[in-house]
Amino acid sequence: MSTTTLPRPPRVGLVSLGCPKALVDSERIITKLRADGYQMSPDYAGADVVLVNTCGFLDSAKEESLEAIGEAIAENGRVVVTGCMGNEADVIRKRFPDVLAVTGPQQYEEVVSAVHDAAPPAASPYLDLVPEAGLKLTPRHYSYLKISEGCNHRCSFCIIPSIRGDLVSRRPDAILREAEKLVEAGTKELLVISQDTSAYGVDIRHQPRMWKGHEVRAHMTDLARELGKLGAWVRLHYVYPYPHVDQVIPLMAEGLVLPYLDIPFQHASPKVLRSMKRPANEAKVLERLKSWRSIVPDMAVRSSFVVGFPGETEEDFQYLLNWLEEAQLDRVGAFKFEPVSGAAANDLPDPVPDEVKQERYDRVMELSARISAEKLAAKVGKTIEVLIDRVDEAPAPDEGPDRGHFDAPHHQHHHDVGATGRSKADAPEIDGEVHLRDAGHLSPGDIVSVRVEDSDEHDLFGVPFSG
Ligand code: SF4
């Protein structure tokens, strides 16, 4: 009797660097490759070709990307490079002449065909191996939803518009269809990302499309409302404080969108903001924050700031600290200004010396840690909703603490098992977490009520609420 052996499907290894946006690109590429019959390899050794999705935003990120390419060449030898650094093919080829192909960001067709050249696909791909909503690198219960590419602004420290081009918005019905599939496939949280979410649809003049029998404009407010109806948490990232952002606040009050805004302010001093060429820098942000919070008192605001921007004086910096004290942001990330090759800000006069940058960075972090600690402490004793990200392994019966004679040895009790999740105020990877005890009965993706028992500078600690 003879058996037919199918050819072994070619395997692709993936190294994905950079931001959530790059992760979305990686997911799209892998989904296509899986549809073409490829398998993913968890290590270099088993891969027929290694795909490195690079980040080229900061010079330090470029260096990290180059190191990752070097490692893939050393470990495997057959390497295709894609992502933001792909725009600097000459730099990559000069350092690594053996790289098989270099493609830029969003060049899905090119990168897929480069992989086809490097490791031809098997004759009979199993198309049905591809899950409904594409293959996801993020855990099943949360998903990034990219609503546009590119950016119409020209912030002086940023090279994204020169890498990714001007704003190109996706059709609202296409975004909603993708979101609906993700929710059907188990997503509990949709993270809306772009370079500037508040500008969504400007390029297509907010043109409406039909969705479920009615028109939906390509506009942040319409999109947020429709996403909210799908039944998952909806979290808005990269929102600039334009006046029309006021319209999404009532959606938070209605529970359609999470009471969370990620607004990359970058600075507060009007002089520095002007020199950064930041969008919406004239908006009266402190007043707006106050009025938003009067509608949605538990709204969490996260932001990032750059310290040591060229020309930033001690007075400018003090302005930022005072502003932060008043704004009472829930989460703050800070970066020391770093010149990015090709950015206009590099030519600005009065660079800030490194030790001053470091000192300002420490001061801003100290202040924001204190504010965060105070805000989190105010949640102790309250009951909050938590989306579970992971549940600890149950300890083996003989490793667990002595439970006395009540537990039979074969009967594992969930009391000793911890879990980690996030509240509505915490985006994955960038914000804090909620650590739970007595959580062995939970699974990732569950949304549970939690009584908060303790807090520190970043995280909350609690126990699932039972009655
Ligand atoms: S808004 Fe500014 S920082 Fe953000 S992508 Fe556009 S140019 Fe860059």
Q: What is the compact description of this entry?
A:
The chain is of the alpha/beta class and 467 residues long. The protein contains twelve helices and 20 strands.
What does this structure look like?
By secondary structure, this protein is α/β, with parallel strands linked by helices. The chain is 30% helix and 20% strand. The chain contains 12 helices and 20 strands. α1 (20-35) packs across α4 (108-118) and α11 (314-327) runs parallel beside α12 (354-377). The chain is globular, with a radius of gyration of 24 Å. The structure holds iron/sulfur cluster (SF4).
Topology:
Elements: E1 11-16, H1 20-35, E2 39-41, E3 49-54, H2 59-75, E4 79-83, H3 89-95, E5 101-102, H4 108-118, E6 142-146, E7 148-149, H5 160-164, E8 168-169, H6 172-184, E9 189-193, E10 209-211, E11 214-216, H7 220-228, E12 233-236, H8 249-253, E13 260-262, H9 270-276, H10 285-295, E14 300-307, H11 314-327, E15 331-336, H12 354-377, E16 383-391, E17 419-423, E18 434-436, E19 447-455, E20 460-464
Parallel strand pairs: 1-2, 1-3, 3-4, 4-5, 6-9, 9-12, 13-14, 14-15, 18-20
Antiparallel strand pairs: 7-8, 10-11, 16-17, 16-19, 17-18, 19-20
The chain binds iron/sulfur cluster (SF4).
The site of iron/sulfur cluster has 10 residues, from helix 5.
